[in-house]
């Protein structure tokens, strides 16, 4: 167990280093930040001096080593665009992204499980069929289009909900501002959360439905029916329990992508989270911010994967046996 | 669709409604980008200045018609006794937002601050040797040699309060490149028509009317409160205006203009923008990098440049690519720049036959290949414009390979001087032709021709252009400008395409018009 843990951690570190290196090499192709930082009147000499000061003239491996060395200490350098430490900026904007991700995750999970169970139980009902067809729309429409459609209907045509921003926020700690405590903050969350969660919702719904149908065909459900248990008890107690295992796994893994995919939703709704900052950073060639963001996202994925792996290990005794024999 | 939604929506609980239109005096202002910093001397950046103009004042500024107006200075002129000295008489009785009186000391301090190495504004005032306070309300600026156009460089040079800067340890500008954040980045003590209430970078900036403003009774000053929000996504910007969450919108998406104009309570104001779009060709090299012609440079032959100039159908570009939102251009300066004439700005007639003949005459009967590099995220419809021009040049046999990319890459390569054929846009902040000559046309040296990547070098032109900064006889100066433009046109140094057009959209109850510098001076805004 301990050996396996250590092996996993080493793997995680390697993944992080690879991500850092790849993202860093990519920055050779994003252009030159200098022009965004000085006016058109700046002389060639000014530009050169600035490049020298930012260390952009050093060899790539040297720049990379410097970056990793700082990153290990939690230092990501200074954002070129905002002229502030990157770590500060990320900490300031992360709450907005996390709140949005949390709400869309909750929305996807509750509705996804509910609709999944319903469509499994009423397999041939007209409503089930309608939900299944509608879910195809959710899967196939690109995020930005969903966002714009929602804005068009609920903000422009109906004037029910705001089309951009977070509304009024309340500061609860030094860098955590929340939109949960005001009416406008909650209203502002609705459209982006739906936009971000729609794909996950359809995914979870179809997964739950398939699993549920699978479980309902098993012997123990037949026995339960034969024993004369109530339908409700069978569906929601015996069947749903076994349906949930793979769903929990998938949800865990999807959590990472919700945070990562927030970029598009945040851009459409001008949601002041890290995703929007990342887009701005790309436009501005804000290399310190871009590398830090990619690292943070990679870290989130690695940690989630790690936890899911560990959970499997704990939950499913069979894995340990298989792993051991495979290890020889 | 619309009708269906409307019919469903009637009878919905009112609690869901957005807050009804805010009180008539709050202006909710949106634009694509945000101010980078409130430190007034750190960055020379359009949106940063646009926001700063509401909070700070320069000595002189350009009003909504781009005419120079007295700001914190009431009179200015060159001393009769010394042509190297500009005298500025300052406005009396002005106070900063914190109540401190405004005096000559603040001007001297602000100019010294703007000349600091950290300041992006220092190039604009590099001709100033020293600034001295003669008395509390008179300032002398000594320039290195006569500089008849000095005030043109000062329209975005804001005046700070010396005592406040010293108290808050911001006597030098924010060092943007070192990532320094000082007190002045988020806090303001200016003399401007609005005071800062709160600042959340990239999210929201709130200001209130300054009741002690020196121009409180001179200007409409109809707004009591401003909330500025950047909204990057073009579709969302337009939607926010349509849904009533925004009252005033800069950076109106071209594709939404008709729709916004058709909306009941929105109008779109249109005016010329201080930006001309053109193509540059590397004429100085022996051989192009991306052409199949070896041992010669087609662009070095004037006939080729003339042929290309004739091949570009600017009317078609205006109608099809720009949806009418541009003005075809014959020169790289908009109409309000000193030196502009309608004659110079006349667009060359499109003539494919003649262009082909010229190419054949120059020795390229079958045309040649070349790569055109363009931005795809900098100017209005830049990539589509380049695609159109690629087709037009194809008609006369020039096979253009189009390479469109992000502006950060484009400008970096352009600065390295490695592009054969490129797109560029230029604005003239000083409103004088010399700015165009100095940067785009003069022979490239250490201090001149900073953006001249054409290899063009002409002794007569350089002589004319270099006489301009110190020429105090305005008639002689204007003659030199006219002659310089003639040379530039005759040599077809660049291929001008069009002047961009600015669109601002707003509620119909707002009285406001477009300002060509894309800097809304909101003290001029009034409500019907």
From TrEMBL, chain A:
Residues in ABC transmembrane type-1 domain copies: 94-312
Transmembrane segments: 12-30, 100-121, 133-155, 189-208, 244-264, 292-315
CDD domains: TM_PBP2
Membrane topology reported for the UniProt record: Multi-pass membrane protein
PROSITE patterns: ABC_TM1 (PS50928)
PANTHER family cross-referenced by the UniProt entry: ABC TRANSPORTER PERMEASE PROTEIN (PTHR43163:SF2), DIPEPTIDE TRANSPORT SYSTEM PERMEASE PROTEIN DPPB-RELATED (PTHR43163)
The protein's name: ABC transporter permease
Higher taxonomy: Bacteria, Pseudomonadati, Pseudomonadota, Gammaproteobacteria, Oceanospirillales
UniProtKB/TrEMBL annotation, chain B:
Keywords: Signal, Transport
Record's signal peptide: 1-24
Name by which UniProt lists this protein: ABC transporter substrate-binding protein
Domain Solute-binding protein family: start-end pairs: 68-443
Family of this protein: Belongs to the bacterial solute-binding protein 5 family.
GO cellular component: ATP-binding cassette (ABC) transporter complex; outer membrane-bounded periplasmic space
InterPro entries noted in UniProt: Peptide/Ni-bd, SBP_5, SBP_5_dom
Molecular-function GO terms, alphabetical: peptide transmembrane transporter activity
Any one GO biological process: peptide transport
Pfam families: SBP_bac_5
